[in-house]
Amino acid sequence: MALHTQVFEPPEKSSSPFYQPIELDFIALDSICDHSLYLKLNGKYVLYRGAHTPFNSQDRDRLLQTKNKIIYIYCETERDLRHFYEQNLSNIIENKEIPVKKKAEVLYQCAKGIAHDIFENPENKESIGRSKIVVENTIRLLSQGTDAFLQIISLSSHDYYTYTHCVNVMAFSVGLLSSLGIKDQALLNEVGIGALLHDIGKAKVPHHVLNKPGPLNAEEWAVMKQHPALGFEMLFETPTPERSKSIVVQHHEKISGSGYPSGLKGESVPLISQVVSICDAYDAMTTTRVYKQGMSPFKAFGIITQEMKGAFDPNLISHFIKMLNLKDRK
Ligand SMILES: [Fe+2]
To answer: How far apart are the CA of 198 and the centre of ligand 1, in A?
Structure first.
């Protein structure tokens, strides 16, 4: 793999410290970087700029003049590297010099890292707060054109993990809501946060139920069905926006009234919860689990439109199909 394509791929994935190559464009200008910056000279890493010192355009130009397009940051762990990308994410997304594909790659990796931390340690309110960074930047990237959406979707993991599933559902939901013509940034942000956190209640579901390699029995299913309410409870005392919390508790409601926990019907399921619900169902069907292969998008929509007929608004389904068809045309 060429040096410049390395994103979130430390040379050693163990706990050993490492120097990570970073393209100069990735470093926000005039901002205080928490990491020391190094140059590689004759095979040795030499300190260029200590941590917490501003990096400005003159520094950047000087480095470019000396043909240094890559700088290195020293990371004790992979977490340090993630912190660097999170800290510079807005700059990376806004920077016109960085190709959309690379922006999408950094964004998806940051989202995965944050979602992973949320599910590993759901009591940590700081991780929930970090979800805002990734949602805001997803919306920012999506506003840069359809290609951005396609790039994010093409990166979405096809192997099911609760945290990658949540990232996929977040990207689908914000994309679908935008494709419905909704431009209200606050609403898009809150839906993105709700979608990213929608399954947070699964952190409280016993492992033997959550990770059972096969269909659940009635008793296990009853436990599993508690996760929307458990998620709502977990977020109750956090500063999570109200609309995001309502998505968490309503993401399994269906307009047919067949959903849970409340069996809401028709318009009593808010549009934002319907959006997350259909994106959740689609991603769950198309990703691969330990015990089943993911379905093709075609087959998933066959189930959504036939076996699940009445569960989702037909208008929403057709917008979703239209949005994904763009990908197939690529
Ligand atoms: Fe769920």
So the answer is: 6
